[in-house]
Design goal:
The complex is a heterotrimer of chains A (about 475), B (about 170) and C (about 250).
Chain A lengths: L1 H21 L11 H10 L5 H12 L3 H21 L24 E8 L4 E10 L10 E9 L10 H23 L8 E7 L3 H18 L3 E5 H13 L5 E5 L4 E7 L2 E7 L5 H12 L7 H11 L10 E2 L2 E2 L2 H16 L19 H27 L3 E5 L6 H13 L3 E4 L2 H4 L3 H13 L27
Parallel strand pairs in A: 1-4, 4-5, 6-11, 11-12
Antiparallel strand pairs in A: 1-2, 2-3, 6-7, 7-8, 9-10
Helix pairs in contact in A: 5-6, 7-14, 8-9, 8-10, 9-11, 11-12
Chain B lengths: L2 E3 L7 E9 L4 H10 L7 E4 L6 H16 L8 H9 L5 H8 L8 E8 L14 E3 L3 H7 L2 H8 L6 H14 L3
Antiparallel strand pairs in B: 1-2, 2-4, 2-5, 3-4
Chain C lengths: L2 H9 L7 E5 L4 E5 L14 E5 L8 H22 L10 E5 L4 E5 L4 E2 L2 E2 L2 H7 L6 H17 L2 E2 L8 E6 L2 E6 L6 E2 L3 H18 L4 H15 L4 H17 L8
Antiparallel strand pairs in C: 1-2, 2-3, 3-5, 4-5, 6-7, 8-11, 9-10
Helix pairs in contact in C: 4-6, 5-6, 5-7
The chains are: A alpha/beta (about 475), B alpha+beta (about 170), C alpha+beta (about 250).
């Protein structure tokens, strides 16, 4: 075992190097299709050349920050353009994407296996698409979706090294199980999809190594998938949401996303820690079990709470910040445990008895954090003029969050889409699904390019499979 | 002459505003007020501290809003109007600055009555000469220096000044 | 949508006939011809009523607190700015913070293509003689705003209204709903960047001119304090380079 660990640490720098070598963001492809043209020409009768020049200049540079900048450029253009659409549709000119230009002759289906291990869940799933565009009539079939979660003792978080070891221990068994459940032989598979990022380095690596090994063994192409895109695409596929604002809430991510011109654009996000991280860390302070998940246990406690305690509320435009809230509520919890009766919020100053319970703290934390999430989601909806919301990511399972989102959406006469824990929580099937979409659009990875990356923004991915 | 008005949001109240000059019995009025004599249930305001009708009505609006929301800070609606003129939360200070003084000669008197009962009231408690209550009249008795000091404002433009006073009244203590 | 929110607003505004002119994520904006406490003398005089409706999804205590806090925050910014040298914002008429209602002076008038916002005015014709002076004036005003330590938070050409001063148009800044006080160079730089992006997307053809006029006005607005101006500019360049967003860990 110790030798494996040693390998881990030795491997890391080489990945960092590899990252620098190969992990430049995808080359710029002008996204200026009919719809953006139409929007610009509607604004003014003149030639919209200045924008093009601006974009091209930026993109000529290979500097990472510049490309990031470009992403945001188009983001705000897209935002304004969409919001200027008076008819409320953001589709513009519809050109159907052909998903079958690389179909093998004589084959009517595509099948992919997906491996996910960016955090403490190891998931393997097998998905099947029929020929033709996905629709309510032609849906993807989930052939199997198995998962194993690395659970740590109460009060402890999962460390990268141990999580990676967990993944290595389980990945072969899970792959075998998923193949058995699906009743699929390796000859039927078209590709192997793995999570390229974002996530924790060591766990990602352990899974990508498994994916490479499979690819060599079975002689199948590899597809690296952005974890966030996996969540979004699976959420859309399961719920049938057409063009929603996506709230992506998990242990590592908190983002409000909307699709525009072949990118999932980030409208708002956390400025410090992710929502799931905030909940997990508070669960650690409370020393409550990590099984089945810390967030779930907080949710159960919150159901029994009723006293609302005022916490900091930190929404900044469409972004939010959570570290201050965590620090504050951690302090309250510690004072409660230590019996620090000078804390006026927790203890009645006359009787010196606690007037607040752990349940109340959980309740207040959820109420505050979720209100912030719903608020920024509503802002994004107003901005892009849509009334659909899709919640994805592990925290999306939370029933209180779903209810609050529903209340907001009903006020806007819209619809909310959420999935259950099979698809909300990290899973392999979503990686298989998003990867298969890429595969059908002709994307292939060379073995040397099958590296993973801890940082991988949602808006870096060219969404070739959507109009 | 005097103003009788009903603020649209508070139809249950009718507001009367009067202005007097050459008032001779301010000391007596003030003493009776302190005693809580029912005949003196008015807002007696030192006219030197009032620049515009807007300022007065804005304070009345604030007092009625707080009254209907059960957030009144003083004992009666009439004292609340005086308190509402103030930019600060100190009630005694507000009464001293904006209320009647022993030597006041220019007075503004406000009476708020129930619109349905149309209760009678007797203004003879004020010994003085009733005058019009237009912005012009108010300006003539206003002491700008005091007003600017009360509200900590500097503007030379009286319209701007009046709007700034309104903002101060509306935002007091919130 | 959300007729019940309009009804709710009306229930807080007894006897005030209001008409909805816009609805954002956070507030509903109405106009009315009835003043809350003054006799309305001028025919056709209008007033703005901004209503922040309660959000059903929020805990009632949190909702009440946020509604009050935000209504007041906006009102306080306007109070600080109104009458300040070289700055024009609507004056406050009345505040009912507990119900999330703010009464404001109505700014602007009708022009050929709608209300006299800077956006509509710039859309009117491709090049008007006073565009340059107007945009310089806007830049100057933003500089003064920033010097007072106030950040608008949502600068767009729709949030600049134009008023006639004699025969000339003069800018007036509206909607401080996302505004806040800050003396950080970063916040001011982002404020400018947001405006630049807005101009680029709403007025793409002449955006270069418009932005450079704004910047010239902004520079001038700092008067003798060019050191401060340079600090903001330096950060502004950084903000432009990176975009507003930073890269984030998965």
């Amino acid at each position: 075992m110790s030798s494996t660990r040693h390998q881990d640490t030795k491997e890391l720098p080489s990945y960092e190097e590899a990252l620098q070598e190969h992990e430049r963001p995808p080359p710029y492809t002008p996204p200026l299709t009919g719809s953006i043209m139409a929007s610009i020409t509607r604004l003014s009768r003149d030639d919209p050349d200045p924008i093009y020049e601006d974009l091209n200049n930026v993109v000529d540079s290979t500097d990472f920050a510049d490309v990031d900048h470009y992403n945001y450029d188009v983001l705000s253009n897209a935002v304004r353009d969409v919001s200027l659409d008076t008819d409320g549709s953001s589709k513009g000119i519809v050109t159907m994407v052909n998903l079958d230009q690389y179909a093998k002759p004589g084959k009517h289906t595509y099948t992919a296996i997906g491996l996910e291990g960016s955090a403490n869940k190891l998931g393997v799933g097998i998905i099947r698409h029929n020929l033709g565009p996905l629709s309510q009539e032609n849906r993807a079939q989930v052939l199997s979706n198995v998962r194993d979660t690395y659970i740590t003792p109460p009060g402890e978080g999962f460390l990268p090294r141990d999580t990676a070891r967990h993944h290595r221990n389980w990945v072969v068994r899970l792959i075998k199980r998923s193949m058995e459940e699906a009743g699929v032989s390796r000859e039927e598979l078209d590709c192997i999809c793995f999570t390229k990022g974002p996530g924790m380095g060591a766990p990602l690596q352990s899974v990508v190594i498994a994916a490479r090994a499979l690819s060599q063994l079975w002689d199948l192409p590899l597809i690296g998938v952005n974890h966030c895109i996996g969540h979004i695409e699976m959420g859309r596929e399961i719920t049938g949401a057409d063009n929603p604002v996506v709230l992506y809430v998990s242990g590592g991510n908190t983002q409000v996303i909307a699709y525009s011109n072949q990118r999932y654009r980030i409208f708002g996000e956390t400025l410090d820690i992710a929502i799931g991280n905030c909940l997990d860390r508070f669960a650690r302070t409370l020393k409550i079990p990590n099984y089945p998940s810390p967030g779930y246990n907080i949710e159960q406690l919150a159901k029994k709470g009723s006293n609302y305690i005022e916490l900091p509320y930190t929404v900044k435009g469409m972004d939010l910040s959570m570290s201050g809230i965590l620090a504050y509520i951690d302090q309250l919890a510690n004072d409660l445990f230590k019996g620090n009766t000078s804390n006026k919020v927790i203890f009645n100053q006359e009787t010196k008895e606690a007037q607040i319970t752990v349940e109340d703290l959980c309740f207040s934390l959820q109420e505050t954090l979720f209100a912030m999430l719903v608020e920024i989601t509503e802002r994004a909806m107003a901005h892009v003029n849509t009334n659909q919301v899709l919640i994805v990511g592990g925290v999306g399972c939370n029933e209180r969050l779903q209810k609050m989102m529903e209340d907001m959406v009903l006020d806007r006469k819209g619809s909310i889409y959420a999935t259950d824990e099979r698809f909300c929580i990290d899973n392999g099937i979503m990686i298989a699904h998003a990867g298969l979409l890429e595969f059908r659009m002709g994307k292939r990875f060379e073995l040397k390019d099958t590296v993973c990356t801890q940082k991988f923004r949602t808006d870096e991915v060219l969404v070739s499979w959507r109009d | 002459m005097s103003i009788k008005t009903v603020l649209p949001q508070f139809p249950q109240f009718t507001v009367h505003l009067f202005k007097f000059k050459n008032v001779t019995n301010s000391k007596e009025i003030k003493q009776n007020l302190i005693k809580g004599d029912k005949r003196y249930d008015f807002s007696f305001i030192n006219a030197q501290t009032v620049l515009s009708e807007e300022q007065l009505l804005s304070a009345v609006y604030r007092a009625l809003l707080d009254h209907t929301q059960d957030k009144i800070r003083t004992k009666t609606i009439h004292s609340e109007v005086i308190f509402s003129l103030s930019p600060t939360q100190n009630i005694m200070d507000a009464l001293r600055r904006f209320g009647i003084q022993d030597d006041s000669t220019d007075l503004i008197v406000i009476k708020i009555v129930d619109s349905n009962s149309q209760e009678e009231f007797d203004l003879s408690v004020v010994e003085g000469e009733e005058v019009d209550i237009t912005d012009e009249d108010l300006k003539s008795s206003a002491i700008l220096k005091t007003i600017k000091k009360n509200y900590k404002l500097k503007s030379e433009d009286l319209t701007v000044l009046s709007h700034q006073i309104v903002a101060a009244i509306q935002l007091r203590g919130l | 949508m959300s007729d019940h929110l309009v009804e709710l607003a009306k229930s807080h505004l007894t006897n005030i006939p209001v008409s909805l002119i816009s609805q954002g994520a956070e507030s509903l904006i109405f106009t009315t011809t009835t003043h809350p406490y003054m006799e309305t003398s001028d025919e056709g005089q209008q007033y703005i009523v901004k209503f922040r409706p309660p959000k059903k999804y929020r805990h009632p205590q949190l909702d009440a607190q946020l509604t009050k806090r935000r209504t007041l925050a906006e009102a306080r910014l306007l109070q600080r700015l109104y009458g300040a040298d070289g700055i024009s914002v609507p004056s406050i008429i009345a505040v009912d913070a507990r119900n999330g209602i703010l009464w404001l002076e109505y700014i602007g008038q009708q022009i050929e293509n709608g209300v006299s916002s800077l956006k509509n005015y710039l859309w009117l014709e491709d090049s008007k003689a006073d565009y340059e002076s107007l945009l310089r004036a806007v830049g100057d005003m933003i500089a003064r705003l920033h010097q007072m330590g106030i950040v608008h938070g949502d600068l767009t050409t729709s949030n600049v209204m134009l008023q006639k001063h004699g025969s000339q148009w003069a800018p007036c800044l509206i909607d401080f709903g996302l505004g806040f006080t800050s003396d950080l160079v970063e916040d001011k730089a982002v404020d400018l960047y947001v405006l630049e992006r807005a101009i680029l997307s709403t007025h793409p053809v002449h955006s270069d001119n418009y932005n450079s006029w704004l910047m010239e006005g902004y520079k001038k607005g700092y008067g003798k304090d060019q050191g401060k101006f340079k600090q903001v500019m330096k950060r502004y360049e950084d903000v432009r380079m990176r975009g507003r967003k930073r890269s984030m860990l998965g």
